[in-house]
What we know:
Elements: E1 9-11, H1 17-26, E2 30-38, E3 41-47, E4 54-57, E5 70-74, H2 78-87, E6 96-98, E7 101-107, E8 113-118
Parallel strand pairs: 1-4, 5-8
Antiparallel strand pairs: 2-3, 3-4, 6-7, 7-8
Amino acid sequence: MTATWKIELIPVPVTDVDRAKAFYEKIGFTADHDHKVHDGLRFVQLTPPGSACSIVLGDGITEKTPGSQEIQIVVPDAHEARQHLLDAGVEAGDVDQQPWGTFVYFRDPDGNSWSLQAIEARPQG
């Protein structure tokens, strides 16, 4: 296969769209779109700093249960990322050093879980 495949958008199920949007903006995500398409469908796209992949939350976006999504992000420095979360008032776990990377874990207001991973090198760059 010669085509490039890239993940573009991951749905994050939430109970309160405005609360979730404010949370993600507080930790540095950019709100790219916030459109009420019609009653029952609101599309809010947010992108983490420097990411080519975004999350989407809103009304009518997914049937997943709020708090059931798990997402991992690669960051340059786990200690710095943890401090950024703490400075933003987000409860974050201790830095977890593993042979394959250094991790920090946190949850959004609905309980969706995030892991931030800092790794020395990636096989594909």
